[in-house]
Amino acid sequence: MSADALDGRRKIAEGREAIIYEWDDGLVARVMRSADAGAVVHRSAAASEAARLAGVATPRIESVTDIDGLPAQIMERVDGVDLFERLAANPLRLFAVARILIDVHVELHEAAAPAELVTSHEHFGAQIERSPLIPDDVRQRALTCLAELPHADIVCHGDYHPGNVLVGDSLPPTLIDWTGATRGEPAADFARTRLMLRLGELPPGAPLVIRALARVGRAMLRRSYDRGYRQARPVDTALLAKWTLVAASVRLGEGIESERSALLRLIEGLDV
Q1: At 49, is the secondary structure helix, strand, or coil?
Q2: How far from 141 is each of 135, 150, 242, CA to CA, in Å?
Q3: Which end of the chain is less packed: N or C, by CB atoms within 10 Å?
Q4: What's the whole-model pTM score?
Q5: Domains delineated in the chain
Q6: How confident is the model at residue 135 (pLDDT cuts 50, 70, 90)?
Q7: Beta strands in 33-177 (DSSP E)
Q8: How many angstroms from the chain centroid is the CA of residue 203?
Q9: pLDDT 10s digits, 29-73
């Protein structure tokens, strides 16, 4: 596309990895912030399509392209609010939000992953090995655990949390933002979500009421999600502890300074 394709386009939303712009004919453009994210954009499109074919509601991707020199996806526009916003409108919906979070994740973990998806082991191993933010002793523990963990061929979202599930009056719960998707063991995805519900930094622009709720309601939401997911998909406790070590090490390498101390304490306390 031309070098000024985004001129005059209204910005709809943004996150740490991408910005969403209004496009033509009921579509949006999800434009990555990094020019090096081309392979990620193709893999995420494949993961989203696999999930959609398995029955998970997710925006239909029309094409993968470059916009102003940046990798992008042109996709179906989905108008709704994320589960953080749903909670902000009424914090008493906490258990209903937890139920949605459980149901969508369980449904996703029935989806067979396409072969072009990188495996969770490859993806996490590369992140742990290359990040200078992970202490060497933590790195070695995490890589040792990762080598012992089982492989699988299920779609794992990689960044599953309330901000990535959209809802609306006529919209089924819709899962977005597939750039972290991998092919692997559902327990890996479960461990990452539990970790983010426990101590994850809220996304940019999260409402003030959600920031207040995070101080008092985070543990309640995490416990409800944890219990409901385990009832639907039993999880081996010993393997989950190892996946938690891996997930916490990966998160440590992402450089979110406000989480660093808590992550290091969590990792130190894991008996794996």
Answers
A1: helix
A2: 10, 16, 10
A3: N
A4: 0.90
A5: 11-76 (3.30.200.20), 81-269 (3.90.1200.10)
A6: very high
A7: 61-67, 70-76, 81-82, 154-156, 165-168, 171-175
A8: 11
A9: 999 999 999 999 999 999 999 999 999 999 999 999 999 999 999
